[in-house]
Amino acid sequence: MKQLSALEMAAAVVLAKQVSLDGGHALVEQLKTAEVSCREFTGVGFYTEFSVDRALPPAVVTVSPGGGVRSEVGPDAYPLEFMLYVKEGYAEMIEAYSYFDGYGDLDVLTAAFTKPRGFDPDRVKVRSRSSKLKCER
What we know:
Elements: H1 6-19, H2 25-31, E1 35-41, E2 46-51, E3 66-73, E4 78-87, E5 90-97, E6 117-118
Antiparallel strand pairs: 1-2, 2-5, 3-4, 3-6, 4-5
């Protein structure tokens, strides 16, 4: 079983609190059970698909994908922003992206990072990938 990385989990918890009507409780409980099924690295971020325990209660969310969370990763503080995707009340994917040039050979999942913090996504124009991932399973 592949679990969410420390960076993914930290960002997802902040995102859950932003998009959920119960302060993120249901989504955070789901995220604790997340099993990663696919990761796709884009060179400027990544997508991580996962499944959660559907025996847990579904969350009521305001928007999906949604949230606005930012963290700096690695020794050069590469900026990443995150969004959480929720379908039918269950978390299913986290997206990390940057408006900067690529992160090169930095391992964004294991590098040190700043504590993810929220920002106002309404003030930032975000282009999200809408197609389904094509990961090797």
